Amino acid sequence: MKKFKNSETQQPVKLAASDFNKISYAINTAANQSSQTADLFFSNGKVEQGPSGSQLVSFELKGGDSTQSNTYITHQYIIYPDTYKIDLNISLSQPAQLLTQGNLNLMWQYEAHQQEGDIEFEKQNTQVGYMEDGSFDYHTIGKTNIVEFSKSVEWVGVRQRFFNTFLIAKNKFSGGKMEWSMPESNSHIVSQSTANMRVSINPAATATVPLSLFYGPADYNILKKEGGGLSKLVNLGQGIYAFVRPLNQYAVIPIFNFFKGFVSSYGIIIALLTLIIRLLISPLNYSSYLSGAKMKALRPEIAKLKEKHGDDQQAMSMDQMKLFREAGVNPLGGCIPALLQIPIFFALYSFFSSNVDLRGVDFLWSHDLSAYDAPIKFGFNIPLLGDHLSLFTIAAVITSLLISLYSMSMTPDQNNPMMKYMPYIMPIFLLFIFNKLPSALTWYYTVSNIITLVLQFIIQNYIIDHNKILAKIEANRKKPKGKSKWQERLEQMQEQQKQMQQKQNKK
């Protein structure tokens, strides 16, 4: 791959470059004898010009035995300009003599060598995928090691985080199986896979098996252009996170590609992508900040209730809910934007972890936006943290802490001991979770937090009028309020619990 370098050796990435890699199938060479075509010598190699700038490379194998003298096999490779796909046409004369029971049992072996700095993370992101009977499925290599096909198969492939390989049958495989293993990490081999696929041959005078091979980057745009569902092997959201894939396909990727057209720095592109996302969800954020401002305005009222009820939590809870209802305040109003951030985060985690455009790209102190930045090396391993400290992670943690402290200042109840420690707990978790994640993701999170802090400051100080909020709360309090069935049931439960508590206290 001339456009890509191995992260460790800085040499061009090579795919299928070892002796393990091969394409072969068994043929009958004599009575009761068979051989694999990979062990036989094909001759008469020639190169011809094909249509649209393509090149046709052909090799031929002729029968040498008297019983096989009228048989021959031709392998024709069609190499297209500016593409990673190569067509392979296998032509067989007298297939009834060459093949047993009219089946061509094709063996495809592929060895994925380490291309990234962190081989363990590379293994976690290496998968075997296939399209069986029109439906896509995949397996992460560390979770299982074999898959069998009972229906027709369009293609099988291996995704090695940033590089994909596919074996495609234009007339479909009729069945088969695929097995793989993970050698020890010190071998610098991510996985070794063997696919044994069956092709049913029409026993005519001549038969042709049209195949295609793809060795190239796991680029969603390139694979989508190739068609056949190859782009489904790019991880834009899989498994329990499959619900975020449409978000990546129809929002994140188009916006990213738009900025990529005229912005050269991918770090700036990520910042602009973050800004667009935050602007799109800003109406919900505004409602969250407004809810927080209302809660802050009710703090004196809640303090009076605490003084009135003391340690009676049941009575305090009932009167507090009554106060919220009278004031028209939803205590959960700030939760919706926070919940909305979850699918966005998972979508971007998948996108940044699989986007080959970010591979090996410098930004600020990071030498590779697709990997963690590690300007601080410990020289030893710390459990859960690793042997390094990511500065983008530190920036994300600090900005998250500032947001938590600000949110804490908006809560009406400042005396809850658990709430005093909450602003510090989440950032600590982020430190351990983010330290090994791609720096593109931690940079996005940092920018998103900075935007949140700026928006909170502007909205709270220049847009939200606290006096109007208090006046509106008083006006809402004077209006007659109806109770929902849920509120009625909740109050009944609270009243029952209060009576039970009173009985227990009497006893």
Which runs of at least 5 residues are low in confidence (pLDDT < 50)? none
Order of strands side by side in the largest beta sheet?
Answer: 3-4-5-6-15-12-11-8-9
Number of helices: 14
Question: What does the main sheet amount to?
Answer: 9 strands, antiparallel
Q: What separation lies between the terminal Cα atoms?
A: 81 Å
What overall geometry do the principal axes of the alpha carbons give?
Answer: elongated
Q: Kindly name the structural category.
A: alpha+beta
Oligomer: single chain
Proportion of β residues? 25-35%
Structure description:
By secondary structure, the chain is α+β, with helices and mostly antiparallel strands. It is built from 14 helices and 17 strands. The protein has helices at 95-98, 119-124, 220-226, 245-260, 266-280, 282-297, 299-309, 313-327, 335-354, 391-410, 417-434, 439-463, 466-478, 485-506, and strands at 22-30, 33-36, 43-49, 55-62, 72-79, 85-93, 103-113, 126-132, 135-140, 146-149, 153-160, 163-173, 175-181, 189-200, 206-217, 376-382, 386-389. The chain has a nine-stranded antiparallel beta sheet with strand order 3-4-5-6-15-12-11-8-9. A six-stranded antiparallel beta sheet has the order 2-1-7-14-13-10. The protein has a two-stranded antiparallel sheet with strand order 16-17. Helix 5 (266-280) crosses helix 12 and helix 10 (391-410) packs antiparallel against helix 11 (417-434). The chain is elongated and about 105 Å long. The model has no long low-confidence stretch (mean pLDDT 82).
